[in-house]
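Lecture 7, part B: from sequences to assemblies.

Below are the input chains for today's worked example.
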Amino acid sequence: MTVLAASGRVWQRNWLVYKRLWHRSLAFGFLQPVLFLTAMGIGIGALLTPASLEAFGGVEFIDWLGPGLLAAMAMQTATFESTYPIMNKIMWGRNYEAMLSTPVGIRSIVGGELAWGAFRIGTLATIFLVVLALFGIPRSPMAILAIPVAVLVGVAFSACLIAFTATQKNDVGFSAIFRFVINPLFLFSGTFFPLTQLPDELQVVAWATPLFHGVELIRGAILDQLDPLAAPLHLGYLLLMFGIGAWLAERNLARRMAD
Amino acid sequence: MSSQQSLVHARALTKRYANGFTAVDGIDFDVRPGKAFGFLGPNGAGKTSTMRMIACSSPVTEGTLSVIGMDPRTQAREIKAKLGVVPQHDNLDTELTVRENLEMYARYFDIPRDVANRRTDELLEFVQLDERAKDQVEPLSGGMKRRLTIARALINDPELVILDEPTTGLDPQARHLLWERLYQLKRRGATLIITTHYMDEAEQLCDHLVVMDKAKIVAEGSPRQLIDQHSTKEVLELRFTDAVREDLNGQLNGQLDGLADRIEELPDRHLLYTENGERTLEQVNLRKIPVESALVRRSSMEDVFLRLTGRSLVE
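Predicted structure of the full complex, as structure tokens:
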């Protein structure tokens, strides 16, 4: 059995568990963006004056916000899937110990989990895009590119968080990650307001963080505003993050499981 | 014995952890096909570390180890394909049903679906869980979970089954049922490696035993051989009231002197190793030693362990 085939088995195990609740998960995946867009897009957006809308590049607030939320959803789903469930499979449920007694190896486990994350985020991003279409937000068929970009954002975060989780002996570190990494990224990556509102120094910091690049790409694709110069940089950042994360995830998990 | 004839062949096998602790210190052993091979020893003796090296889940630090004729360092995947592992702590997939646990495990071994289905049916019947096939794992009793873990370990029709403390934590009834299933497995010709700190388990199940203590093998043989070599035929256990113990203080041992081949003094009782326990008890009574209670029994692995290490097996 190849590493790839074994990754498929790890993926299949997650599918076996998920397929009992898929309808619930998909319904939630639909409801969440509808609620957010209604509350923030229509609710808050209606309060903005034409002058203040200029900061959003001349589009309605809801059009600007929607793609940002899609990117943030990819990050949050990846975070949720790569912390407690992975910790469970390492320590509490010992799933990986059981898998490692079979020809399935560490690389296949990491590969299978990342493929699972890609699948989950891919389906949620598709639903999200459908919701955006219902609100009339996408400008062109290019918007479909938002799905693979969201998947890339997701697996980049997943890989790094699996690498982190593999080093943790309990779940205390997770709340620090949620509070000090995920929440600030959620708020300050150009999701809710343009980074031009921030002081220059903070704008530089935002450029160094990952979600910002995902937001830029996804918004660019959906609003048909991709910048041909900046887009490859955003993409390169996320690909590099994924590569380093995946390498660390395999290394850290191998060390952890050999304990 | 050459390494070709043994399923597991170890020479000077050593496991040292990163913190410098030596868990297994240069042990030699050979596991022959079709036999039940036991590692007996207290917690921390190095049994689990040895098992983990055989199962290719922990790297060998030094020495030679071959498993089913292969090298765990380079052929872990091939070895694992032919092993069945029952770990010390249950690691069943609690998000799947009983049946799914076996079917999914078969997928990890790349077993074709039709074969996997057939084997799942057979194994559920073998471990008497066919009626629980559709249930979740969590509500099962400890004994049932262990049986399911054993069924899971057999899904790939392994050449060698490794069981790390298979009955620890189970009630007596569940243990006997499990022993009976393992005995059936042995009769079918499976090779088993079992670790245990229960002497009765070792005596019941194992054809050949090594006794481990402090990372080393201190004795080796069949249960009968080990008892013959390291203990007497019978043991007379004497208990004294605390008052008597205090009264006689140091004199108690003097009074018992010469009554047995060897006397072990435990916190709660004295063990007199002798060929004939009843006769020794008569002599104790003749000497008018104020015994609270007396018991004559046959020597067991517990006595062997006590003799070899000066300590009890289960502390």
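Note for the exam: The domain at 8-222 of chain B is CATH 3.40.50.300 (Rossmann fold). Keep this in mind when comparing with the next example.
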